[in-house]
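Bench log, entry 3. Co-assembly request; chain sequences pasted below exactly as received.
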Amino acid sequence: MAVRYELIKQCRHSGARLGKLHTPHGVIETPVFMPVGTQATVKAMTPEELKENGAEIILSNTYHLYLRPGAELIKEAGGLHKFMNWDRPILTDSGGFQVFSLGPLRKVSEEGVTFKSHLDGSTHLMSPEKAVEIQMALGADIIMAFDECAPYPCTHEYAEAALDRTTRWAARCKDAHMRDDQALFGIVQGSMYRDLRERSIRELVNLDFPGYGIGGLSVGEPKPLMYEVLDYSVPLLPADKPRYLMGVGSPDCLIEGVMRGVDMFDCVLPTRIARNGTVMTSGGRVVIKNADNARDFRPLDEECSCYTCRNYSRAYLRHLFKAEEILGLRLTTIHNLHFLLTLMKKVREAIFNDTLPELRNEFFTKYGYDTEKGGK
Amino acid sequence: MAVRYELIKQCRHSGARLGKLHTPHGVIETPVFMPVGTQATVKAMTPEELKENGAEIILSNTYHLYLRPGAELIKEAGGLHKFMNWDRPILTDSGGFQVFSLGPLRKVSEEGVTFKSHLDGSTHLMSPEKAVEIQMALGADIIMAFDECAPYPCTHEYAEAALDRTTRWAARCKDAHMRDDQALFGIVQGSMYRDLRERSIRELVNLDFPGYGIGGLSVGEPKPLMYEVLDYSVPLLPADKPRYLMGVGSPDCLIEGVMRGVDMFDCVLPTRIARNGTVMTSGGRVVIKNADNARDFRPLDEECSCYTCRNYSRAYLRHLFKAEEILGLRLTTIHNLHFLLTLMKKVREAIFNDTLPELRNEFFTKYGYDTEKGGK
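Structure output for the full assembly:
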């Protein structure tokens, strides 16, 4: 089997679990946060920097790579790992989320989704078979089924139709998938409706995937609603398979998701806000351009051991952002990735030591509750 | 003495010389190319990357740092070295070239130059005393006198007035300079007029600077004219002091300058063209976005040992540039700096081994004569 989940320990205080995900490119300790490298690069980072900050697996994107540079080119290069010089595990998203996000530029049928490229307006059909074919060419360790992600809010009727199609497409993805060295995960949908989530899980589990994505969350709903969906959904998923909450990555959501039994997360949030000059610190978010950083010669976070905090002051970082220098966003990206990946390491240690509730309380007390969206 | 030049060997075949420049932050082997970090950062690079590619000294800019973030702030931070986390030597340009480049935004008087900031339009006076005061606050190892750089072409009369003022300003800079731990270099002017260059050198040498910049070249004149000026100027400079050809950095100009006795060079060329996707290779320039790189899975330069060439293909670099990914310009910047700094290392070895003419011939045969401007 391409990917095998090993349950190491179940938390005594919550649904959290410590595990290992065995893949062709190495073992990942879970719960894990996966930095996003949409276009075959985690923006502004080298693979060495990702590793130095603790990244064990990264995510890349079928939709973007299919359009540019094309899956065949990446296959010729020897696959995505070799193309981008990343020798650890990769997960590719199926492109479903991106295609459905195109709005008026796409048309859905049972066959798949016809859409116009955001790059040149050319017309393409993405189907379950095509999404799997592309992902087989890219060669990630974990690939995702092509799904229909319903918007929020949406009616029960709409959500039901989307979920039923997602299930039928999941079966077609499974039939199309031919590589033994990669695992195909199914994706749970059902919007915020409990009966639909339950049905989605029941039907997908019948198809027996080696792992399950939880889709259709962090799409604009309030966080408590997302937690509620996780509360009743995750326990229905098989305990011997990894659960991946898609597109979620704010620190509070990571902790809350882990406590509800989620093993994997991805989000552009830490890297995107870093490029805009916002950093996560143990004391909460800091906007680096703010005037009070002008003569602040302390590091971003005095508790942090990342390259940025070891070597640069807030004053220098502010100067770099004011002067629109690329080094600025490199340094904040390093810091934010280090912050989130270190948080996940602490979470794993806390599960091991049965101290997860204490970690949660300490974190929220110091960091402050983050009311923003998890973000895509 | 803050900076001492040690002549190691005079080339048998040309004016080239091998030397060591002793500074408070370390010894620099000359001839040397200095990467430019205009705004207290060599664009897109960390200090570690600069060192890995062989940078021994970098240049930064008085005009830019004075306007943003301000010299006082950098002084408070502990000086420019500490502010930007660079512990090797730094040279700061005086701001003369930048201020004179402002065109209609500046007005020259004997006192100095009144100019409007390119950032916010605020009015400032830059004088010899002010330029030295700022550079003392920044704390570079080598600082430059405030000069008037005449445009090309210009009349003998204009060039003469500019050179005379440059000499008077050089004397004022010397009077204003109070730091024993940094060296103040004078700047030779005189446009393309032999009598003026000779007079400039005679008068500056009378003032006895620890090193001399050769200004007013690479300002639009044909390369042979620049070489002619060097031919008659450099031999008049004292042999026991370093000579710095300002703003010159194309590979051919480096070799030609070295052979005429120049010890130091700086230029934004390698880093600027890198960010636009043009790289220097042993076989000449390569424009990475060109279609013939799309499926070229070889490195940029098969003779190159830089990080980029060790790990990435032209196809991947082209993808990064097409997708406007920051990693692309990081990787080309690394490559171009490595290329130029390695070229200078080979030049030093060739002077040592008395093989500089052979190196020159081999380089121009393979690389092709570069007819473009040295560039600022």
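The interface with chain A takes residues 39-41, 43-46, 64, 68-69, 73, 76-78, 83-85, 294-295, 297, 311-313, 315-316, 318-320, 322-323, 325-327, 329-330 of chain B (CB under 8 Å). DSSP finds 15 helices and 16 strands in chain B.
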